[in-house]
Structure formats: structure tokens, C-alpha cells
């Protein structure tokens, strides 16, 4: 991985802890600290607005536990990797379901921080390799049909035929390019996990689109304009998902 800029935010209710971590991070010229916050709630909003690559997050904070902040970040599919900073090792067990990048147990030294940063770089490199491999494989082979349970039975579909998917309580309405709508008896999150396609992009909590049908992005009004069957649909995009879209690794989407 080349040393391009890695953006970072520090959230800790102790200013001295922030200052020490900031001093350590300055030893890494490719890391840019784009925000610092001593209030957990404000830190969460800062992450939503800026989507940093790394969030150094204290767990024991008075206004909101860091575990809750981390859970909110990961639930909303944010761009950031979380590094917990804590003086209490027992928190590591509480945080296992959250799956942070790593833990830094206070007091830590710059050598500990170096290991965390190297771990992040290795993870990004692995993701990049896997993405390139997936693109290559998808370009060489036809995508098999995927089986999904619906209110009418079983649906076998090609991802290229999906235009939009919308949450419908615990179900998911799949809008097809032939104008039909199929109600899958799984929620949107589970359907996205089953389909596992880079062409499908979640634009807000309840809606996902197929990027192959994306005609235009209106950043001013926060809308994606979808084009299919000579019809244009305007779909609202949340601010954090628009930022995520801008930061995505660009690659050609193919309907073949």
C-alpha cells in the first residue's frame, strides 16, 4: 500500500489523552487528523459528516459510552475503521461483537500505535486486492442466478435485473427492470449480504439502488437519478452515504 493520506478523528473526553495521541500521530506524515472531539455525541456527528478512515475512540466517556458510538457507526455502514483507546482491558470482551480494527490500552506507546497503523494498511491492501480479484472474476464469468425467498415462493434472479430495493418492515421489496416488484421475506440488510454485489449501493437506511441504472448524481439536492425503461426516478441520498459514494474506489459497472 502506498502511503497516501489516511484521515483520522480522535474522540476522547480527556484533552491530555487527545494531545498525546495527536503528538504520536504526527510521527506518521501520511496521517491527517481532520477532527478532535471530547464529547462522544458530537464526535459521532463528526464521523457522520467527514467519514474518516480511522476513528480513535475512547470507550469510557460520560455522555455516551464509546461502545454505543462504535455500534452506531457500524450499524449505519460508515466508512471508518474503529480503534478503541481504553484504560480498561475488560472492555475488549464487551466490544467483540462490534469488531473494531484494534485496541490501544492506555497508557500505550508509539510502537503500539505503529502496529495498529500497519494493521490498518494491511487490511486496506487486502480489501483492494479482493476487489480487483472480484472485478476480474466477474468480467470473466457470467453471474449465476441467486435464489431468494418471497411471499409467493422462491425467486431466481440476476443482479443486473434489480433496479431498486426498498425496506418493507421485515421484508424487502425488489423492483425489477421489467416493472415487476417482488417482496423478499428478508430485511434489506440480509438481502444485501446474500447478493454481495459491488453494483448495489445503499443510499439511505431504507433504499438500495443498482449503480448500473444510475444516470446522474445531484449533490446539491442530495439525489440519485435512476434511468430505466425510459423512466427517470429521483431517489434521496443521505449526506453520509453521498460522502461514502464520493470516497468509493471507482470501477466500471457492467450489465453484461
TrEMBL record:
Classification via PROSITE patterns: HTH_LYTTR, RESPONSE_REGULATORY
Residue list for modification 4-aspartylphosphate = 58
Q: Which SUPFAM superfamilies match?
A: CheY-like
Q: Which InterPro entries does the UniProt entry name for this protein? A: 2C-system_Tx_regulators, CheY-like_superfamily, LytTR_DNA-bd_dom, Sig_transdc_resp-reg_receiver
Report the domain of life of the source organism.
Bacteria
Keyword Phosphoprotein on entry: yes
In this protein, which residues make up the domain named Response regulatory? Answer: 7-121
Report what the protein is called.
Answer: Two-component system response regulator
Going by the UniProt record, its keywords in alphabetical order are:
Phosphoprotein
Residue ranges of every copy of the HTH LytTR-type domain listed in the record:
146-251
Q: Name one GO molecular function term.
A: phosphorelay response regulator activity
